[in-house]
Known about the structure:
about 425 residues; four-stranded antiparallel β-sheet
Amino acid sequence: MSVVEDMDTGARMFHLIERLYPICRSITGDGVRQTLAMLKEHIPLQIHEVASGTQVFDWVVPKEWNIRDAYIKNAAGDRVVDFRQHNLHVLNYSVPVHARMTLAELKPHLHSLPDHPDWIPYRTSYYNETWGFCLTQRQLESLQEGEYEVHIDATLAPGHLTYGEYFLPGESTEEVLFYTHVCHPALCNDNLSGIAVTTFLAQWLATQPRHCSYRFVFAPGTIGSITWLSRNEARLPNIKHGLIVALVGDAGAFTLKKTRRGDAKIDRVVRQALRDRGEDCVVVDFAPYGYDERQFCSPGINLPMARLTRTPNGEYPEYHSSADNLQFVQREKLAASLGVCETIVKILEQDRRYLNTNPKCEPQLGKRGLYRKTGGQKDIGAREYALLWVLNLSDGEHSLLDIAQRAALRFDIVSAAADDLLACGLLHEIHQHGSTK
Amino acid sequence: MSVVEDMDTGARMFHLIERLYPICRSITGDGVRQTLAMLKEHIPLQIHEVASGTQVFDWVVPKEWNIRDAYIKNAAGDRVVDFRQHNLHVLNYSVPVHARMTLAELKPHLHSLPDHPDWIPYRTSYYNETWGFCLTQRQLESLQEGEYEVHIDATLAPGHLTYGEYFLPGESTEEVLFYTHVCHPALCNDNLSGIAVTTFLAQWLATQPRHCSYRFVFAPGTIGSITWLSRNEARLPNIKHGLIVALVGDAGAFTLKKTRRGDAKIDRVVRQALRDRGEDCVVVDFAPYGYDERQFCSPGINLPMARLTRTPNGEYPEYHSSADNLQFVQREKLAASLGVCETIVKILEQDRRYLNTNPKCEPQLGKRGLYRKTGGQKDIGAREYALLWVLNLSDGEHSLLDIAQRAALRFDIVSAAADDLLACGLLHEIHQHGSTK
Amino acid sequence: MSVVEDMDTGARMFHLIERLYPICRSITGDGVRQTLAMLKEHIPLQIHEVASGTQVFDWVVPKEWNIRDAYIKNAAGDRVVDFRQHNLHVLNYSVPVHARMTLAELKPHLHSLPDHPDWIPYRTSYYNETWGFCLTQRQLESLQEGEYEVHIDATLAPGHLTYGEYFLPGESTEEVLFYTHVCHPALCNDNLSGIAVTTFLAQWLATQPRHCSYRFVFAPGTIGSITWLSRNEARLPNIKHGLIVALVGDAGAFTLKKTRRGDAKIDRVVRQALRDRGEDCVVVDFAPYGYDERQFCSPGINLPMARLTRTPNGEYPEYHSSADNLQFVQREKLAASLGVCETIVKILEQDRRYLNTNPKCEPQLGKRGLYRKTGGQKDIGAREYALLWVLNLSDGEHSLLDIAQRAALRFDIVSAAADDLLACGLLHEIHQHGSTK
């Protein structure tokens, strides 16, 4: 453990990903339990088990799936496809099978990627009971005519859906929700990266003073968020800002997918945080396809839930294949993603509205030691500029976030300027937190 | 006739244009009557005659103009300018004249195009009683000094202004108005193209089920729309959407000239229709110059009347000259213009608002056979995407048109998705038709 | 004087600048008084004197500063830096000093521009009592070790702050405020250019009929506008439009800095005026740094005060240095700036709203002699186009300025069209002046 403690944060997140990588996760089963148990080494997750058959809105919690082994053996008895080599080799949620068959009978159960002949695809069949194997195109093409033994040693039986939750209370009941999906097997960016960053964010936030309350949910995609939402409807009005964190370990630029309403405060906060940290950012409008924003932004839920990824789902070649591996995610990208999330939290925490107590003309900053002594220069520094902007826009209508955006200044510089002005009585705090928008 | 029936639609519209081309139309007179009579072979037009002298708002219906022959003969008795060669040769609405004069006396009555020496210009003098001839610059330059005989065998006398109207009732009293001008003589794109496309649109629509009611007006430019408006004021509140169709046979891209208010539903429908059909589209704001939108969008009328052309008036060299001839319009462009108009009608007909009956999280589409069985692929097809969009935005505020525009999907795909969702009970129709905007 | 009268306006403004250039101005003192006295040769300025120690909002009117001579002499007794050579050589508002010191003791009091070694910088120390000299980098580098005599023969003592004001009443109490700063010593563009243009604007406007009332204030930067505002609070509600005029003699394109609210009528008027005169224009949003807009647009004042400059403060290399000299400003640029200001006034004066008295369809312009007699041409002239636009938008909601902007026509053409339509009864004036926005 001391080796890990010596690591920088990026390396520590990468180390967690390395440990999580071999586990075969799905939307239910022991893979999710093992994953959450490993996260409990970092944060005191509360584990929830929801029984198969439970109605969750239009859906029913499915039977629980567990797998021990799976293979295709050729006539010589060699494992030509072997789950022990890679857990993507089995179609996720395959029903158990043990049979002998010809290649022609086998082929309809095989999935490959002709355009990427060395990669194993990731395929699922959660709600259609069948079995299958995923393999590289080269493996597929090397299969000779003859008899094969196929074996999937799995169980699909009544059990539970498992998710983890961590709540950090703040001074206010106003909640911020972070959600990340935990259902994918050996895929590093999608979504061990999101799991690692969210875990380390929660661990850091536990040590910070908090105005808002924070909730972290680690749950399977789609059925997990549907289950969580159906069990937490009474809590939803408290959730003022939310963020899906996923696919944050690759080398691509960040993508903010905006909330369904498109002008929520979280949309603006994420942009400000990315700008403040010098990160490029692609901003896309909400669309009802992607990750769990589909559920959080359904018309009857409609939470202000944005999504932060780097390269989005489906837009990199390695997506949902064995090439989304430990080489595909980078320690420094994970660290930068965590840094962005921390900045998002800081902006949410520090955004406030003030009233300029001397609104007629500028107050004389020089006599308060807040302004340079010699005049006439071409430029003004960011700090003096921030002082002037905070004074000018602290008219009760603008929060510090509004001011930072209008002035194109870093939020922390604006916030520090407000602190200085508050200290010398030039601002008066309005007791309504932050921007209303 | 069987030859015509064997033609495709583009060829049939072109055939109609060929028959209409030789007729000398004006804002009144037998040319318009012959034109409307030819259209009656396709649709049961109602013909209206409004007497000269009738007050129509600030205007008075002018005397009726008819022409039989016109020429300029040189000293040798040759017809050097001859109305029988081209009906553009006479200044439209010329008063009768029969006189001998020198070239110097004649010249103030001659109009030519120095920049296009082989083309005859189209010129009019409706409200200033004079006479004149239009000729090519080469003809003009070849005129020798000497005496000329000029003869315009025309009458300008009390009569009528003639227009045609065709009404197709629908389930609703909500009306859609199509307007096209019929006053130009031998000019093919301006506006035999508009006449042909509007006629075939009406003919097709007569065979379709209709929610809206449709009205088609074939009338002269300016005085025709003023006359129609002054006689139909009580009807105007029923007109919810309107379109001027003109200049739709040339090879140029489409131009949508928006309504005066600029955000009417018809503005959005035309754009969607052009996009759905893969047509390039230039969108221009309303301006009080052009065709009959000048009257429909005057401040006291202000109907939601857009205008669809290909290259707009005045923006192609052949405009208002003998070069706007049978070679200038193309069968396939006419057919494509008709197709766009049909798509406009389909969108107006099918646009509806629904309520998602299962608004909390997505409904499980798979169990209803509406979703693919194997998961994990990169892409989602347009149909599944349309299903998700319709569910997400069917919150009572968005119509199918709103959804198609937000989702950047074809309207017919969105509409078909709504049909599927309605069939399995996931949508409930709101009995207010379409987008309010 | 007859020589001056023969000059064109640009040359006359330049001549005024030449006379003002040698005067050593500051925020108080005889330099401002001499400047205003010279302006009184053109316009009957009212001179205001406000005593040192007067509280003006958060500020106090400072002691008055006057200077007679200043120099640095080397050991040989030569004036190596000499106020008589250039009044920028002394740090503006330096306290008196007469002492001998080493170069090392002297250096903290010296200001230069290493990047522009031949220019003297302009530096001030209004509110921090110190003394200093400004010199070229070459002068600085040529100073040998040794003893120097420094002498600043100045007084800083209770006195007055001086500003000038000129009020031109109009038919209405609605006021337009022009403000320009007069505190800079030998700097031509900043702001002898603004002083000259504002003076000549006032002189011209005194000869014109006026609907609005106009007020011109010539006062020092920052403390001058704060002083004026604190003494004129009761008058502020009358000020409907305001403009800071400064830095208008250089060769750069115009920059409009918008009002704090960003959509005031003056913002639109300035843009229209620049467009009408064919001037390029950079438009920037309000920011609380620059000139006296900082005070006029403070949150508790918030007047609709825009700012017109050519190249803005700090954005040209010569800014606040001896290179902002008589060569840096150009007669024809001064004349063009005055022309823009006159056009701004004309638009403010002539903007009105009308009602089309014949709003249903177009009125027949031809029978009123307002339209061409022969039809069919490709183009319509700007005048006929303006007639159509004025008729179309004179629905009570649009002013002539709104129409000119929508139609992309020159304001004077639109205004002339309105006059023609009013003359023949097609418009009715609404007795509310201009655009409300």
